[in-house]
Design goal:
The complex is a heterodimer of chains A (about 120) and B (about 180).
Chain A: H1 2-37, E1 41-47, E2 50-52, E3 55-58, E4 63-68, E5 77-78, E6 93-97, E7 102-107, E8 115-120
Chain B: H1 3-16, H2 24-30, H3 34-58, H4 62-89, H5 97-114, H6 118-147, H7 151-183
Helix pairs in contact in B: 1-5, 1-6, 3-4, 3-5, 3-6, 4-7, 6-7
């Protein structure tokens, strides 16, 4: 009887500490993940048929968001087609994670007079 | 005079016909009022939406259809903003000889476009879009903006110019693509 209680108590403690240990491992993994994936969010505003800023420099892994402040839809389309938002409606938003380094000219396929550049370092 | 030049000339004549620019006295006498300016913009928008709807009904070319759909989307959005601004500023669109003349010209162009089919229609539609947007840009810059009395209306007109320029550049791209298809 006593030995059974002792065994059960030990099992309980053992499983709790194992679970705590796992939590710690998970937490440290999360911390490590956050550190390696840390990226900056950059915003490009589309207003009056212009991308602002016209030239944006970011680091590989950074996120860029384009906000359409015009009354008509626009696109964010790389000249080399490496990224293409499709139509971003009025008031809409499109996010893109810059995975590859390089200099990317982009335009709006609807209004080709709109031109800008994204530099990924 | 080729077809494109004829369209430019006729649309430009329609817009400038009632606005004498030769002498300051004449210009002052014929300058459009704010309600007339809004009326001209509304008419110009409506005309381009109607051309686009005709193109969507008649054309099978993807680039032409995409362009026409864009004209419906953008000019409808612009039309809404013009009506919203008009309501805000209490400026009611007013007919003028210019807006009437634009509509008459558009009726003639539409009649001609309706007789055409296939590649001939696509070419005539896009040529007209290039000419029409060029004429509208000129009219907005040279007549409507300088004569607009209300600052907010003036600013809205200035803000709309890049939209028309974008359409003009897009139309020219489709025009070049159509010419390349014809040549090949």
């Amino acid at each position: 009887m006593v030995s059974t209680v002792f065994l059960l108590t030990w099992l309980l403690f053992a499983s709790v500490s194992w679970a705590e240990g796992q939590k710690t491992v998970a937490q440290s993994r999360r911390t490590a993940t956050t550190a390696t994936e840390a990226n900056t969010l950059h915003t490009v505003t589309i207003k009056d048929f212009k991308y602002q800023p016209t030239i944006l420099t970011v680091k590989v892994g950074d996120t860029v968001e384009w906000k359409n402040g015009d009354i008509v839809p626009h696109t964010v389309t790389a000249a080399d087609k490496s990224f293409d938002s499709g139509a971003i409606g009025s008031g809409g938003l499109w996010k893109f994670v810059a995975k590859n380094s390089g200099s990317f000219d982009y335009t709006c396929t609807f209004h080709p007079n709109m031109k800008a550049k994204l530099i990924v370092q | 005079m080729n077809a494109r030049k004829r369209v430019v000339a006729s649309v430009a004549t329609a817009i400038f016909a009632t606005i004498a620019l030769n002498t300051p006295a004449q210009a002052q006498a014929a300058a459009p009022t704010d309600p007339q300016i809004v009326g001209i913009v509304v008419a110009a928008n409506r005309i381009d939406i109607d051309y686009a709807k005709l193109a969507l009904a008649k054309s099978k070319d993807k680039e032409v259809r995409d362009f026409a759909q864009l004209m419906v989307t953008d000019h409808s959005a612009l039309q809404k903003s013009v009506f919203d601004l008009g309501a805000k500023l209490k400026v009611k669109p007013e007919e003028s000889d210019t807006s009437k003349s634009l509509k008459t010209q558009a009726k003639q162009t539409t009649k001609k476009l309706k007789t055409l089919k296939g590649a001939a229609f696509d070419k005539a539609y896009i040529d007209n879009e290039v000419a029409y947007h060029q004429a509208v840009i000129d009219a907005v810059n040279k007549v409507l903006i300088p004569n607009a009395q209300n600052a907010e209306l003036k600013s809205a007109l200035t803000g709309a110019v890049p939209l028309f320029e974008g359409h003009l550049e897009h139309a020219k791209k489709v025009q070049a693509a159509l010419e390349a298809k014809t040549a090949s």
